[in-house]
Every structure is written in C-alpha cells, then in structure tokens.
C-alpha cells in the first residue's frame, strides 16, 4: 500500500541510475540522474560519440555522493530523438533548452572533451547560468590542431579494429604498459551497467560530430574572459586528441582557474588517475 508521501530513494550508483526522458518542443532528451536532490545540480557534458553508458562510474559516483548529478544524451545520440547538430553552438543551445526544461536556473558543469567545447559555448552565451565549471581533456574554440581530431579518431578506430579493442583504449590512453592497463580497466568499468543500457551511437552521428568539431577548431576564438566563475581544468600530459597545451591555454584565458596535468597519460588522464581526480573534482564542486 502506498500513501502518496513516499520519498524517492536516493540512487548512489551510476550503474543502476534509471533511464529517464523529457520532451522539449518536438524533441526528447534521454538522461540519467542520481545523488541527493535539491540545490544546484551538476550537469555532465559528454565526449565525442558518447552516450549515457560512456561515463566512468568512478568519476560520477564520488560526485553524486553529495550532489544531484545529471548526465544526458545530446540530440541524435543514444536514446535522445532528433539529429546531431552540425555545429557545437547549436548543441549548446539544445543543452540550454534541456537544462531550463528541467527547471534549473543555475548549474554546475562537469565536461570532458567535446563536452567541454559545448559547455564553453553554453557559458559564453549564458554566463550567469554556471556557478562552477570543470573542463577536462578539452580546449578553446579555434585552438590549434583541434580540427585534426577527425584524422586522429579514424586512425585509432582502425588501429583498435586490428587489435580487436575498443577505440577508446587508443584514443584516451598511452600505448605503454601503464596506459594499456588503464585503458582495459576503464572499458571494464563502462560495462558495469548490465541492464537498460543506452542505444548505440550511429556512424552518421559520429561523422556529424567530427565535422562540427572541425568547424569549432577552425573558428575565431571565443572571449573566455566572460567565464568568471571558479573553473577546474585537467588533462593528461600527452593528449593526442585535444593537445595538452590547449588545457594550459584555457587556464591562461580563464581568470583564476586551477590546472591539473597528470603525468604519463593521455586524453583520458582523469580516468587513468580517477582515484586522485574524483575526490578533487567532488571537493571543488562542493565548495
């Protein structure tokens, strides 16, 4: 028997967070949420070709212990409806529509790679929306060699196919002993969710996102001085997808930002060093 006064139980594991959806206009966004409700939520912005199943639970869960966390699929990705946008500015507009449809006027952001590109576009257009910002494995609009991501991606997809491995093992991690071990462990963690997994990302979606990233890399720089809220930037010291020097450039251009560069690691440095980074990110976002 139910009384109507039951409180929804707090989900403390991303591996079991239920799939949800919200319709905004003619489109439907797929998302998952966990952690205690109330206060300012942390919105997770995902990487290239990532659906909801691509977030590392060792990053998400420590943040969700004390914060309301929401991860979502961009339009045209996973279980969300519609088509992938041709520019990241449009993807940022979609994200804004999703966030406001959920009723939030202020958010914190955790972003990785392409998600960081989109998050920057969102904040430049809506500077008062974000209270605290985490930018990992990412770089600024117009950043040197961002437009070469497509070539790196296609080469590593081929290398991974020949090795019968997940492409992220090549794209995110160094190919030394430590990197290979970290890559295998990361892919294993992404498989911890065994039920109600997200829909696969299509090849067409990947191709459209890569073209949007190329445009982003070849665009005029954004004015990042409008980002005045506390910002944490992190990367590995050997990022082949979004060169590490661009994390350093972000740190110079965003006033008062903090920068962490992990040694002997690549694009997925925060996943390789999750035991160190997750508590740092959780503390930063809780401040």
From TrEMBL:
Annotated AB hydrolase-1 domain residues: 41-271
Sequence intervals crossing the membrane: none
SUPFAM superfamilies in the cross-refs: alpha/beta-Hydrolases
One matching Pfam family: Abhydrolase_1
PANTHER family the record matches: AB HYDROLASE-1 DOMAIN-CONTAINING PROTEIN, HYDROLASE, ALPHA/BETA FOLD FAMILY PROTEIN
Protein name: Pimeloyl-ACP methyl ester carboxylesterase
Organism, scientific name: Paeniglutamicibacter sulfureus
